[in-house]
Amino acid sequence: LAGTVPEEPRCTVERADASLTYSLFLQRFAFSRPVILGGVTDNSAFRALCTREKLLAAFGPFPVRLSTANTYSYHKVDVPFQEYVEHLLKPQDPARLGSDTLYFFGDNNFTEWGPLFQHYVPPPFRIPGTSPAYSFGIAGSGSGVPFHWHGPGFSEVIFGRKRWFLYPPDKTPHFHPNETTLAWLQHTYPTLPPAQRPLECTLRPGEVLYFPDRWWHATLNLDTSVFISTFLG
Question: JmjC domain: which residues (predicted)?
Answer without folding.
Answer: 99-233
